[in-house]
Amino acid sequence: MIKYKGKKYKSYAAVAGAAGVGAAGLARRIRGGETIAKAVAALQKRHYEYEGQHFPSLNKLARFANIPYATLRHRVKKLKILFMNVSQVMQTNPKKYCTKLPETKNKQPTKVQISLHLLDILEINQMEGTWDVRTFMYSQWKDPRLKFNPNDFDGIRKLNYKGELADDQMLRMWHPNLTITNQISRREIENREISISKFGIVYYKEVFTAKIRTKLNFEKFPFDEHVLTIEVEPFSETQKLVRLVPAVRKNGNSSVSPDIWEVDKFKVEFSDRPGARNQLSEEKGLWLAPDGSKNFSLMTFSLGIKRNYFNFLTTKLLVLYFFAFILWINAGFASEEGSHRWPWELFLGIIFFSLEAQSDLPALPYVTLYNVLVNFIYAYALIDFVLWIIGERLSEKHHSTIVLQRIKIWFVGPFFPLISLFTVYWYINHV
User: Fold this and answer.
1) Residue 242 to residues 98, 111, 142, 272, 290: CA-CA distances in angstroms?
2) Which of 47, 53, 368, 376 has a Cα-to-Cα distance from 386 of 20 to 30 A?
């Protein structure tokens, strides 16, 4: 039996458990000649803190943090840290706070390889001209200041930082601070990972969601096609300092198409964007820095989409043409004396359906193909109404209206669908 503070214990391990210290360390100190009280007191002063918790030994901390004990012990011993926050040495490069732009040979711009992979299209908002996306972004660059000796890290050739550790590492090192210039609000980062090789090559991975502003052209609506874009550039360094280049990792799209859209092809272009030139020179009307020295390197990810128009045609546009067809049929029921009633209810139905279909689009400064087709229906109804009035006046004077009836049936009616088909063909191929 072993006595400690007036209590009896069966083993040194039981004493260690009661005192909150490591059993192996306690046994080692007792074998070295220390008393139980002195050994426990010494071990209680030695503790390790990680994620707000205290651990009496590195072994227990290593099990909690899921890191090999030997690796953790080597780093603590290397940095000569006893009382510390262990997150400081959990995969930490000793060369910290390299926040300035890396130096390159002949003052060449730092090349940042970049690629995007579209994971999901969450929404395409036609009214706002935006699209919500979930995207994987990969980038890579070299910073010689981050080189390290694998022997200092138990043979590890690449340091990996995930979650909060990645956020902390970002504050200690330079990074291109890639910004999506056409996003509406700050992108939400789901997860990020940073890896640093022994040669100082940095691999950055990020999964994010964002609302992106893009230009939508509805001139061919409902047969419209659009190009959705994501524009990425460094936040503060011009192209003379940082240049974006294609990464070995391929760009791509694995997303599922939204209900009313079909995803076409994607492409990636690398160019430059003129920097802000909102400062005027002394000469009126001239801008400063016209030589492009303030331009920024730019990567543009473009994704083509086209509308799945079948549902719109069958539920809206063809309904309007069915109303026009009824007008055409109605003209055949007129007697030679013109004593039939003009279908006002039918015309009101045309107005209602045309406006309801237009509600899917924002206010536009130009005329769409749909507007043109609806205007054809309005024009056809107007012509039919005018001919009806003329027929009613002729019938009052006892004149025959058979000529007007033939005009509506054999000339006006067939001309209307032919010009509609021609207009659709012309818009699709020339607008």
Assistant:
1) 16, 6, 12, 11, 20
2) 368
Q: Where are the domains of the chain?
A: 2-88, 105-277+292-307, 310-430
Indicate the DSSP class of residue 253. E
Q: Does domain 310-430 have CATH number 1.10.287.110?
A: no
Tell which residue, 50, 142, 56, 53, has the closest CA to residue 91: 50
Residue 173 CA: distances (Å) to CA of 94, 143, 159: 12, 9, 14
Q: Which amino acid is at 348?
A: L
- Cβ atoms of residues 114 and 232 within 8 Å: yes
Give the architecture-level CATH label for domain 105-277+292-307.
Answer: Distorted Sandwich (2.70)
Sign of CA dihedral 52, 56, 61, 63: negative
Token pair 């890396």 is found at 102
Summarize pLDDT for 292-342 with one digit per residue, the tens.
Answer: 567 889 999 999 999 998 888 888 888 888 888 887 777 665 555 445 667
Crossing angle for the helix pair 36-45 and 12-19, to the nearest 10 degrees: 40
d(C-alpha 25, C-alpha 41), whole Å:
12
105-277+292-307 and 310-430 agree in CATH topology:
no
Angle value at C-alpha 139, between 306 and 187, nearest 5 degrees: 60
* Contact by Cβ (8 Å): 91, 159: yes
**pLDDT tens digits, 114-162:** 999 999 999 999 999 999 999 999 999 998 888 877 876 667 788 888 8
Residue 181 identity: T
Residues in the chain: 431
| Cα torsion angle, 164, 170, 176, 179, sign | positive
